[in-house]
Specification:
about 240 residues; alpha/beta; Rossmann fold; 2 domains; three-stranded mixed β-sheet; 7 helices; 10 strands; globular; binds S-adenosylmethionine
């Protein structure tokens, strides 16, 4: 019997009275296939991660485009672009995951907060009294690709904040200014330690001065005011 190595096939070829046998020894197919299997398994395991990264970067591009295109079109008492960015950055910096917004309007600040939530893996609950604004906010959030990170509630926040179970790690107060103190009293027991309570319009004269004094003198909170914001954002961390 004569034995030959052949990389392509194997088998027996009958000669007159001699048999030639081919073997795989020249090209180790089995080893090669097992290595390929290992690589394929690794690729399959990494696929969901890759898909997530793709989805998030696609989402980011969609939100950025939406915010850029509508930057000058917010006319319903909405926060300016830079203030929205400040809220977003605060959430990202602290990894907050459970936000409450009081005063949705048409959803400009909600978009910034929800965008941050899409990155931390959280969700924002937002409250609005006006049905027209609530509906427009839902439309805007859908168009921006962020609606899945938002629970938009229609109703009077005076009642809603009491009914919401919490807990929250980030709050943005931006509805009726004369109720700011009561919102603070109703919501802060549901704020986690290390959580952040923010309030808009604290330097432009819209919020009663009494509110600033009340929060700034509260020893359970570390409070500063972001004066880069023209309206002023009060930022209070729960100790
Ligand atoms: C300053 S705007 C909010 C702007 C919004 N945060 C933004 O940047 O897009 C205040 C909103 O709070 C709503 N509002 C006022 N009183 C409210 C209440 N008691 N309950 C719920 N929403 C209220 C108003 O209808 C208004 O749309």
């Amino acid at each position: 019997m004569i034995t030959l190595d052949n990389p392509i096939s194997s088998g027996e070829i009958p000669f007159t009275d001699t048999k030639i046998e081919y073997s795989f020894s020249f090209f180790p197919f089995e080893k090669y296939i097992s290595k390929m299997k290992k690589h394929l398994t690794l690729v399959l395991m990494a696929l969901p991660l890759f898909a997530f990264t793709q989805t998030q970067s696609e989402r980011d591009a969609r939100v950025e485009k939406f915010l850029k295109e509508h930057r000058t079109e917010w006319h319903d008492l909405n926060v300016p672009y830079v203030d929205g960015q400040t809220l977003h950055d605060l959430i990202i910096k602290n990894g907050y995951k459970s936000a409450l917004e009081i005063g949705t309007s048409t959803g400009h600040s909600t978009i910034w907060i929800a965008w941050a939530m899409s990155k931390t893996g959280g969700k924002v609950t937002t409250l609005e009294l006006s049905e027209k604004r609530h509906k427009q906010a839902i439309k805007n959030l859908t168009e921006a690709g962020l609606i899945e990170f938002v629970d938009a509630k229609l109703g009077n926040a005076h009642e809603l904040v009491k009914q919401l179970p919490g807990t929250f790690d980030f709050v943005f107060s931006d509805a009726d200014k004369d109720w700011y103190k009561q919102y603070f009293l109703d919501v802060t027991p549901k704020l986690t330690k290390g959580g952040c309570y923010t309030a808009h319009n604290v330097v432009d004269g819209n919020v009663p001065k009494e509110y600033n004094v009340f929060v700034e003198s509260n020893k359970e909170f570390e409070t500063t005011i972001d004066r880069q914001s023209r309206a002023g954002i009060m930022i209070s961390y729960k100790k």
